[in-house]
Each structure stands twice: as structure tokens, then as C-alpha cells.
Specification:
Elements: E1 7-11, H1 16-27, E2 31-36, H2 47-52, E3 55-58, H3 64-77, E4 83-86, H4 102-129, E5 134-140, H5 154-179, E6 186-192, H6 209-218, E7 230-232
Parallel strand pairs: 1-2, 1-4, 2-3, 4-5, 5-6, 6-7
Helix pairs in contact: 1-6, 3-4, 4-5
Length: 240
């Protein structure tokens, strides 16, 4: 699928899977913008993103004022946004399989996996509306269950449930506006990205091209009928 110059914004783009997404979208002809946390803008890890030639926006996705400022800055550079990818929840860092700190992690996971994607999407809706249609992909790691959780990932599962719920409600809101002739077409999907085993150090030191290209490929099938669905980066539907 060719992006044909369409504009994509990737949240959390300067290393790991976010950087792999930058390269995958560029390979399909997209004009790519990526965000970096303000405190990391001068970090050496950002050089990989700079080397791609992508546009760079400072954005703390957990801070309302920072997200609003980034949306305003992008709006001064482009007249619309075709794709928004909330990828910050997909980490290439090692997973810690214990539940000793599960309570303390719960609110952090909720903020990163559920609240932040909603906050970012809401602020970029004015640009997405002009994408006609604009598309939003909320990326998550492999599905987690609140019922079968032997590895202490209850915080992950609850945050994932919250993201799915607000995705459905936001999608329904867009559908309501569309059917009432205000011509708002924004299609949204939750996408699970199961990264290859063996990832360590947070730098994506295994081949991330396949799942990254899988995320790009989802866009051709994201439309009014599939919006609000839960998808896999490997082109599979995932049941709610």
C-alpha cells in the first residue's frame, strides 16, 4: 500500500518500535512526523530519528499542555493529518514477570496505555478531520487477560481494557457525527503488536520490520465498517 505523500504522526518515535514505524511508513511513501519527549530532545538516542529526515515534535504524551502545544505546532506546518499512530505503549524493554509492584504500576500503565492515547487523539482531531478520512491506530502489546494472568500483568490488562472501551466510545461518537451529515470521518482501531522474542535494552535489537510493516498494512482495511475493531499487526482480527 502506498502512502502517496500522506502525512503520518508517530507518537514515541525515536527508538525501538517507534523508530521502526518511522522507517516502515517512509518506505511506503508517507511524509512522517515523530514525537520525542521534551526531556529527551538533546539525547543521543534521537539521532536515529534525525537521520531518517522525519519531522520531529517535542511532546510529552501524558501532559495536556504539551500535547496541545505539539498539535498547534504541527498545525502550523501541515494543513491536515492522515494517520495518527499512538505507539508509546509498545515497549522493546524486557518484561518483568513479578507482581510485587503491581499496585504501584497500575496508574502508570493506565496513564501510558489508555489516558495518553485518548488525550493525544482528542487534540489532533482538528487535523485528522481534514485527512478525509483521518485514521488512528492505538498500538498495544500482545493481548492480556484479567482472568488468566499468571505473570503479574493485571495492570497491563486493566489499562488495555480501558483503552478498548474509550476506543469504542470515540468510534461511536464519530459514527454519530458522520450519520448526522457533519462529514467527520475518523476511523480508529486498537492494534496488537506482538514483538519478536529476545528484545532487550529498549533499543529494538531484533528485526522489527515485519510487525512495523504489518501496522502500515492495516490502514488499507481500516474504514467505516472496521473502525472500532481490535486488530493484529499480522493482519488478523482479534475478538473483544
Amino acid at each position: 500500500m502506498s502512502g502517496s505523500g500522506k502525512i503520518v504522526l508517530i507518537i514515541g518515535a525515536h527508538h525501538g518500535f517507534g523508530l521502526a514505524l518511522v522507517k516502515a511508513f517512509q518506505g511506503k511513501g508517507y511524509q512522517v512526523w515523530g514525537t520525542v519527549a521534551p526531556q529527551d530532545m538533546n539525547d543521543a538516542s534521537v539521532q536515529g530519528l534525525r537521520d531518517t529526515g522525519a519531522g520531529i515534535l517535542p511532546l510529552d504524551f501524558t501532559d495536556d499542555a504539551s500535547v496541545k502545544a505539539a498539535a498547534n505546532t504541527l498545525g502550523e506546518q501541515v494543513d491536515h493529518l492522515d494517520v495518527l499512530v499512538n505507539s508509546a505503549a509498545v515497549s522493546t524493554k524486557p518484561r518483568h514477570r513479578n507482581n510485587a509492584d503491581e499496585n504501584s504500576r497500575f496508574f502508570d500503565m493506565l496513564k501510558i496505555m489508555a489516558v495518553a492515547p485518548l488525550l493525544v487523539t482528542l487534540h489532533f482531531i482538528p487535523l485528522l478531520i481534514k485527512g478525509n478520512p483521518g485514521k488512528v491506530l492505538d498500538l498495544l502489546p500482545r493481548p492480556a487477560s484479567t482472568e488468566n494472568n499468571p505473570h503479574g500483568r493485571l495492570s497491563h490488562a486493566m489499562a488495555e481494557a480501558a483503552l478498548k472501551e474509550h476506543t469504542k466510545h470515540l468510534t461511536q461518537g464519530m459514527e454519530f457525527r458522520t450519520t448526522n451529515a457533519s462529514r467527520i470521518n475518523i476511523f480508529i482501531a486498537v492494534v496488537h503488536v506482538h514483538l519478536p522474542a529476545g528484545i532487550s535494552g529498549g533499543d529494538g535489537d531484533v528485526d522489527l520490520a515485519e510487525p512495523a510493516n504489518g501496522v502500515v498494512g492495516i490502514l488499507k482495511n481500516l474504514n467505516l465498517y472496521s473502525s472500532g475493531m481490535q486488530l493484529s499487526a499480522y493482519s488478523r482480527w482479534v475478538g473483544w
